[in-house]
Amino acid sequence: MTTTDVPQQGEAAASRQIGRWLRGWVDRHPGTALATVGGQFLLGVHTVKYLVLDLLAGRFPFREAVRQGAFMASTALLPTIFVALPIGVTLSIQFGLLAGQVGATSLAGAASGLAVIRQGAPMVAALLMAAAVGSAICADLGSRKIREELDAMEIMGVSVIRRLVVPRFAAAILVGVGLTGVVCFVGFLAGYVFNVVVQDGAPGSFVASFASFATVGDLVLTIVKAVVYGAIVAVVACEKGLTTRGGPAGVANAVNSTVVSSILLLMAVNVLFTQLYMVFFPRQGL
């Protein structure tokens, strides 16, 4: 072997090492992400299918859905109210100052109220659902997974999706819609009180301007968002819980991944919803 062969062999070894690292990176990150998204999509499709079939056949576990809904509501209601209050006040401050600068103080109610209904309410409810409800669902299913309860159910012929996922899915949608309504009421009320008491706004002007610009389409969009966001939180949390591995540490990692993934997905879907609504239902003025 000549002296010129040694650098060539070193370069070849380095190239092979870089190639192995790149393949491992692709498998760990983009590949895993695509597999996760595919699994969540399939789980969502099967969940919706079984939900419809069980409702039509009268086999839907209403008692379990009610129990899960009560747990979700008790977990997320107070945090949602406490977050909705400063959101409503903050929007009232910002739009009140902006309206005062342009000489349109009478439109403060319309601006802050529409901001709460169109964007604030569904997003606040969804984020609290992801943080409080999604983490609880993932922790519950993840604990069952590492204790091999889910494997035992499959062996006994009990569908995990029908028995555990479907009632949580339905409960999350109903609770998401309910929390969105709570945020709409609390946020608008907080903005109204702050505008009237602190900013010396006219009560009648605040309400009248909001009533003039708000439409039924705004409420329909909010309800549709709440339904979709609740479904997203439930599917992501259930998929992360059902695929948990690695013992108690794996459950903690799955819960963390549930919250992060749900929030990122909710933000992306919110942008898509807003853009589509503005394209198909353009508004004139405010």
Layout of secondary structure:
Layout: H1 5-57, H2 62-101, H3 108-146, H4 149-155, H5 160-197, H6 203-213, H7 216-242, H8 247-280
User: Could you estimate the helical fraction of the residues in percent?
Assistant: over 70%
Rounded mean pLDDT is 82
How does the major sheet shape up?
A: none
Sheet/helix structural class = mainly alpha
Number of strands: 0
Low-confidence stretches: none
Global Rg = 25 Å
Percent range for β-strand residues: under 5%
Count of DSSP-assigned helices: 8
* Secondary-structure element series: HHHHHHHH
Give a quick set of tags describing it.
286 residues, mainly alpha, 8 helices
Structure explained in plain terms:
This protein is mainly α. It is 87% helix and 0% strand. The chain has eight helices and no strands. The protein has helices at residues 5-57, 62-101, 108-146, 149-155, 160-197, 203-213, 216-242, 247-280. The longest helix has 53 residues, at 5-57. The protein starts with a helix and ends in a 6-residue tail after the last helix.
Task: Give a short summary of the structure.
The chain has helices at 5-57, 62-101, 108-146, 149-155, 160-197, 203-213, 216-242, 247-280. By secondary structure, the chain is mainly alpha-helical. Helix 3 (108-146) crosses helix 6.
